[in-house]
Amino acid sequence: SQKIEQNSEALNIQEGKTATLTCNYTNYSPAYLQWYRQDPGRGPVFLLLIRENEKEKRKERLKVTFDTTLKQSLFHITASQPADSATYLCALAGYGGSQGNLIFGKGTKLSVKP
Amino acid sequence: DAGVTQSPTHLIKTRGQQVTLRCSPKSGHDTVSWYQQALGQGPQFIFQYYEEEERQRGNFPDRFSGHQFPNYSSELNVNALLLGDSALYLCASSFGRALYNEQFFGPGTRLTVL
Asked: Range of B78's domain?
């Protein structure tokens, strides 16, 4: 069955450092991979989408890579700030019949300490 | 411009009861998807509505049903509630069914089943 793993449940880093979160998947060939941010008690907020034929995408301090050979995506936040503290979710989406179906990982809780 | 709104915010029910949750999509959006998020887990896809019809369904029993109205708002109904139905129920809207379209999530409805 399809499986998504996010590297760890929690990641603690110092302000100013780069946070790197990992999303691995098995038994799936996604057309798109998305990253979301979720704050406690709130719904997820879309951050970035990357297509299977794209290797890297950037948005301000965020960078996402997508390696379909390794079946892995890396999500980087450079110059991290305490305000970046949240849970980050990766989500996969396929073609055709699964158009409406986003498959989410459990998320990684990022804490940025001042 | 209001984003995705959901009601109620919180709900407490007992086993065997029925519940209806409501969602109004972001202005201009025509597609609504529903997700269930248990504590410490990522959201799980329940179903998607487009043009007032259920288009995709996740691995949820028939106790979970929905509806989309002509104004694109949507309802999620759960019958014969079980303790395991306790979760945060999220609604997401987008323009069109394609998953490269950004999904906008509402704040969710926290359902507790006693």
From this structure: 5-97+104-113
DSSP category for residue A31? S
Pairing of strands A10-14, A108-113: parallel
List pLDDT tens digits, range A62-82.
999 999 899 999 999 999 999
Cβ-Cβ contacts under 8 Å for B62 (sequence gap 6 or more): none
**A8 contact B CB<8A:** no
State whether B99 and A99 contact (CB < 8 Å).
yes
Give A-chain residues touching B104 at CB under 8 angstroms: 46
At the topology level of CATH, where does A3-113 sit? Immunoglobulin-like (2.60.40)
Predicted pLDDT at A4: 87
pLDDT, one tens digit per residue, over A2-55 is 788 887 789 999 999 999 999 999 888 888 899 999 999 899 999 999 998 999
Closest chain A CA to residue B94? A100
**In angstroms, what CA-CA distances link B80 with A36, B20, B35, B61, B85?**
32, 12, 18, 11, 10
Overall number of domains in chain B: 1
B44 reaches A (C-beta below 8 A) = yes
For residue A52, the Cα-to-chain-centroid distance in whole angstroms is: 14
> Are the beta carbons of A102 and B44 separated by less than 8 Å?
no
E strands, chain B, where? 5-7, 10-13, 19-24, 31-37, 44-50, 53-57, 64-68, 74-78, 87-94, 104-105, 109-113
d(C-alpha B76, C-alpha B80), whole Å: 14
